[in-house]
Amino acid sequence: MLKVFTHAIKILFAKWPTANVAFFLLLIGSCQSTSKQLTANHAMVVSARHEASNIGVEVMKKGGNAFDAFFAVQLALSVAHPNAGNVGGGGFMVYRLANGETGTLDFREKAPMAAHKDMYLDAHGEVIPNSSTLGVLAVGVPGSVDGIYTAHNRFGSIPTHALIEEVIQLAAKGVVVTQKQAESLANLVDVSTAINGVHSKFSKPYKEGDTIQYPAFVNTLKLLQKGGRDAFYKGELAKKMIEFLKSHGGIITLKDLDKYKSVWRKAIEFEYKGHKIISMPPPSSGGVCLAQMLKMTEKFEINRWKHHSLEHIQLLTEIERRSFADRNHFLGDPDFIEMPIEGMLHQSYLDKRMENFTLKEATPSSMVAHGNPIQLIESNETTHFSIVDPFGNAVAVTTTLNGNYGSKLFDDNLGFFYNNEMDDFSVKIGVPNMFGLTGTTANAIAPEKRMLSSMTPTIVEKNQELFLVLGTPGGSTIITSVLQTILNVIDFEMDIEQAVSSPRFHHQWLPDQILFEPEKFDPKLFEKLRLKGYKINEGKAQIIGKVDAIMRTPSGQYKSGADPRGDDSAAGF
Ligand code: DON
Q1: Whose CA is nearest to atom 5 of ligand 1?
Q2: Which residues pair with 531 in a beta bridge?
Q3: What's the CA gap between 92 and 83, in Å, rounded?
Q4: Is residue 407 within 8 Å of 420, Cβ to Cβ?
Q5: Mean predicted lDDT score pLDDT of the chain
Q6: Relative to the CA of 472, which ligand 1 atom is closest?
Q7: Is 381 close to ligand 1, i.e. is its CB under 6 Å away?
Q8: Which residues have C-beta within 8 Å of that of residue 156, sequence separation ≥ 6?
Q9: How many whole angstroms from 486 Cα to the centroid of ligand 1?
Q10: What's the predicted TM-score (pTM) here?
Q11: Phi, psi of 444 (to 5 degrees)
Q12: Does ligand 1 lie within 6 Å of residue 89's CB atom?
């Protein structure tokens, strides 16, 4: 790499006037702290956009910690990556402090108080198309702003005023549209016009290289600077939001906003082959499913099979199938329902679930219902960012509007999108949501309940030290992307960049099919899988996840895994 670089510089000097070369070198110099593959000695942020990663790193250069960086990066992504970065959505944060203490913060959206079980059904009990995904009725009470302030109150060190100032600069200056973003924004134009009207900010296309400025969001940020968390949940911003949502026929009230509170929850923690995995508990299914899947995998020496061999794919497909069947049946908001989590994670239960596993043929999903853990033990966009700070703290945050640009409802006065998280509830038993996930009463809609999630922000320890910080968007494929990235590192001994880039596949019980990233797997493999009874879906131009990860090396350096599938980018120092 260095050789190629030196060669390129020599050619440049030979062909270009010195002034141009100096400019070129300056450009490289100014970019070198941000990239897909980066090694840093002190601190690092890997996120969906370099603007957000840079802001997080700047905060830490000024003495801030991972929680200050979380605050700033979450806000920065609202402008740098508005299809998922948000103040109008929610998310989860998993942390590990330098002293080894761990925990999680749940800032997931909640159903409004006026929500009810059948709110998306017509008079015949059928689901009204798009009602839980598009427009104002799809919106859950946003949790992100409460989340960043709650985390900051407990762990932050730099005044929020200064952190917001960094983002104001970015929102005012604007963000340059990338090629991927231009494509995504082009797909938004028609639906934005239908929902927000022709004059709305995203009802027109932007092309690669355009700069999008966010003056309305600058004002929103200034109100946050002045009024803090309460500006959003009780004060001027709250009033403006409710006025806007009501004018579109929404049901969220000032009382809903006022009552919103994020919740500190104990992390799901378990061992896998000598590593400690720390992940998100319900209302995310991420940590429970990841634990089930890794515990079902542990007794197999999967690295005696080739990576992406028939056997490797079969084993993961079968454990994923079994875990998702449990997920869809048992999991929901812990503040509303009882869940047999201890039973679901008990080794003897999981061994029993795998009793009928065979490499001879697929186990059809129709033969795999949810298990019975209580008796047994009797006794379409999200975004993830990973942060490590110079003090040794680590933070893994997955945050979302749910679909790409959420409900597509854009508040032109306040400058942000609202989520469509209500679709993560089971709107009718057995009817799949936008990720094809079905559910039962465990995840039925109820006032103030949190909808079940698959988001899996995760931290891994090795020898009691920080080892990995990771997570990804991808709806139901989040869990299996995090799983495969961890297995790639621990069992297949890949470096983090390879582990993140490696093609992925996914099974979620129903629909009974293995989803593969397109054109990445050998078609002969598909033939062999079909012969064993597996149904193949080669992803129709669909990528699976965009993992943003950090690995700590034995010498204490940080290495980035910024997913090449997106504009994702690492920054560090
Ligand atoms: O919480 C969940 O599981 C979903 N709302 C996540 C949505 C998502 O990842 C969309 N990204 N591609």
Answers
A1: 402
A2: none
A3: 17
A4: yes
A5: 93
A6: 9
A7: yes
A8: 64, 65, 67, 68, 71
A9: 20
A10: 0.93
A11: -75, 155
A12: no
